[in-house]
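Supplementary Note 3. Input sequence used for the single-chain structure prediction.
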Amino acid sequence: MTACRLAAIALAIATAVGCSRWKSAPALPSRHHLTLDQLLVFSDTALPKHHRLLEELRTQRSLVSTRLALPLTEEPIHVYLFPTSDRLESYLNVHYPSLPKRRAFFVETDTRLNVYAYWGDRVAEDLRHEVAHGYLHAVVPNLPLWLDEGLAEYFEVSRGQSGLNRPHLDQLTSNPAWKPDLVRLEQLRDSGEMSQIEYAESWAWVHFMLESSPLRLQVLQTYMQSLTRPHGHRPISELLLRADPQAAQNLLDHLAVLRQSLQ
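The predicted structure, written as discrete structure tokens, is reproduced below.
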């Protein structure tokens, strides 16, 4: 995996910041603005409306909705593209001092869905990941942490690769001591509890359900739909075990087949 990124759910950071410090912080990019369906993209450098990456992010909206059988929503996702990593870091240090240092972030507050990133060598991967968080949270505000990250790791992969995140596959299949444990992932409540292996396993379960069989895909879609309702959803581990009693072993077999296909 690359740098792990944080999906901040209903982030509340009560930090006392003096007025002078707020004034010294870099402003959000705002000179140029593009509206791409649900995305509101802000930058200080003009971007063409039909930029390849921006069109991919726009298309990702329908992809997330279709693959997960979720409704579309019009809730805006504000995407702020800083010109450099230093500008982004300076802004986040003032406004979100508790966040670790990362290339990009998705932050959900009570009123807004925001993505912060900078235009670097890996901006495409970063934006696909963070914007996926935005699309998901616009419909499913209480998404379990592992599933939130696993889905974002799946959708960060460029089109045409069926969500195959090669670094995650390499990490899992090269570690003979690793065993899948979905129930353990479901207990995670804070991104600080997630190491690289938890991100990789989260991706693996998502890829397994999305790509291995219609029955497992239906389990995931049914569970995602249940999360849009206030009450009444059961852990997905229970639903998957009922549909596939050998899910853990079948996941290992799925990863082995993926590995073989790349050789």
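Residues 1-23 have pLDDT under 50 and may be disordered. The chain has eleven helices and six strands.
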